[in-house]
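Lay summary. Proteins are chains of building blocks that fold into shapes, and those shapes determine what they do. In this project we predict the shape from the chain. Here is one chain we studied, written as its sequence of building blocks.
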Amino acid sequence: MKELEIIRIAVCDDEERFRTLLMSSIKENLDKKNIKTEIVGYESGEKMMESDLRVLDFDIIFLDVDMGQEDGFETALKIRELSPDVPIIFVTGMLNTWNKGYEVGAFRYIIKDANTFDTLLCECLEAVIKTYFSEKPVLSVNCSEGKVEIPIKSIIYIESMGHMQYYHVLSKSGMIDYNVRDRLSKYEKNLSEYGFVRIHQSFLVNTEFIKKVYNYKAELKYIGLELPVSRDKYKEVKSAVSTARGVI
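And here is the predicted shape, written in a compact code that computers can read:
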């Protein structure tokens, strides 16, 4: 793994003893990987959200599900309005909240269980570092602006219209569109390795951005858009989305 710059982490939990333990455990795990960290603890979602700009500084956010007046899901919704791609990791003692977490694009859940907590935290940190901070794969395309390299994980979907492909990409500053004269099938096989699925002859979609699939439609996260799903691809698309979420 390449050497990383400092990673800024927020830990939000209303139980001071556990919050301190989690912050210490995160630091210990990442110190072993020679990754520098800045970890800030908050006793509530309200405290963490007092400064919107401060939230934008964080690279990873750990959220307790069951907190005071505002629970972790309500806080996560506010975070998503500001930062659609920051990894949110829920820490919880409740086992029946998975679906709500997926609605806000949770990266992982860690259960507050003394027997498994250390193992789950270690695996989670390994996964989040690999996914978000290792060298990111890019797709090189020739578009109207010239040759560009698009981070694959940032592509929400690719739309095909005639001989033109429109890449709809999420960036920290909002949506960016790239117009490419090419064939969609040219990239379909390679992008399938990164979780993309052909939902319709005109759309190749990143399953990470699919909120739900219903009534032959795919609802996308963050951008409030529904795309049609072909009848012959409906079961395949639902299966691909379930697999991406780790649901069997």
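What the prediction tells us: The chain has two domains: 7-132, 138-244.
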